[in-house]
Amino acid sequence: MPVFGRRRGAGDRDAVGESAADLAAEAAADEAAGEDAAPGAGPWDVAEPHPDMQRVDLGSLQVPVLEGTDIQLVFAEQHGAWVTVRHGLSELQLQAFAAPKRDSLWDDVRAEIAAEISGAGGMVTERTGPFGAELQARVPAQPDQPQAGTQLVRFTGVDGARWFLRGVFSGAAAENPAAAAPLEAVMREVVVVRGEHPVPPRDLLELRLPPEAAAALEEQAKAQQEEEQNRFATQPSPFERGPEITETR
Question: Domain for residue 197, yes or no?
């Protein structure tokens, strides 16, 4: 899948807004002042006022492009789609779900995640993080492969206007606050587009490639198909007679 990213150049500051480091520093200042979350802090609903910055439009999620981050849209047949944001040795997975108009999901989802991990023999602890209640858990590094060992992950959730956003931090961000700060800044500036069409609660909201990326993939697939057709068209048939030389004496 296409990767959307912003890398730091020489003397470069984010040309479209604050960098991940800037936003993380602001969040740290708020936390030091005893604030769990600054008033009006994101993630944002598309209908409410939110900071103007460069974001990748992936359908239900508009993900900020901050310095040093790479954004990838992943499609999996069994698990649906999700957005992966990488920064250094850390990773954040984002998914948005439909939610009831007058109810929240995170309390129930958090309890279900904790029960599932504990039932599978894992360790899970609930604590308070920058987005409120969250889970820190030790889970298998690769499902169905015990020999791969375990890894530490953080499950976070935010209830919005008929939507629920889940973020899963892994790598260094699962245990190191400094490593987590840039990805927390990304999650804080995500814009969720719920849409007006009916979606059952807990169903994933649709993710899709931006039009320009989808067009580029379509062109690439078309070029590969034409290349395959041309390759097979120019191969000689094993049943056709080739050139013959006749010697006459």
Answer: yes
